[in-house]
Amino acid sequence: MKNILPKTKNSPLLRTKIKHRLGKVLYNNHHYDTSEVYLSDALDTFKKLGHFELQTRALSDLANLYHNTGRYYEGINLLTHHIDEYESQLTPVLLASLYHSIARLLEQVDQIKHALMYKLKKFEIEAKLEVSESKKAGTLYAIAVSYSDIGNY
In the chain, how long is the greatest CA-to-CA distance? Predict the structure, then answer.
């Protein structure tokens, strides 16, 4: 992969997309430290280049890494700050994805009611977007689990 990066010097966007993908591959292979370096670099560069959607996707991937490495509060802070700062720019699809990630992180720190709020917001968006029935069913199942966890059967 290192051989590919030098060939993209004239295209910072392509180079950054490759770094982002490399970070995801490393993440999927449990090389979290190295993955974090690539994902963080991609996040910063996408932001500098003004590619908001790619920036948000890299941020979401970094938050997932935080989830898998037990750094739940770092992930929560990263995502909530991004939403607070850029909510008006987030597409419904991106917002739903961020809500999903925040809910997962909040569950890990036993903030089930707060996680439930994000799951409900995600489902609201999915209902408006007319996503597949199986995706809605998955979200509804996650909502039901949260209600069960708080004793609201």
Answer: 58
CB 122 within 8 A of CB 107: no
Rounded (10°) angle between helices 52-68 and 32-49: 160
The encoded tokens of residue 37 equal: 């370096």
Rounded to whole angstroms, the Cα distance separating 53 from 20 reads 13
Whether pTM exceeds 0.85: yes
Buried b (16+ CB within 10 A) or exposed e, 43-66: bebbeeeebeebbbbbbbbbbbbb
Is pLDDT at 78 greater than 60 in this prediction? yes
Spatial contact of 19 and 42, defined as CB atoms under 8 Å apart: yes
| Angle (CA) 57 63 68, round 5° | 130
Each residue of 140-153: pLDDT tens digit? 999 999 999 999 98
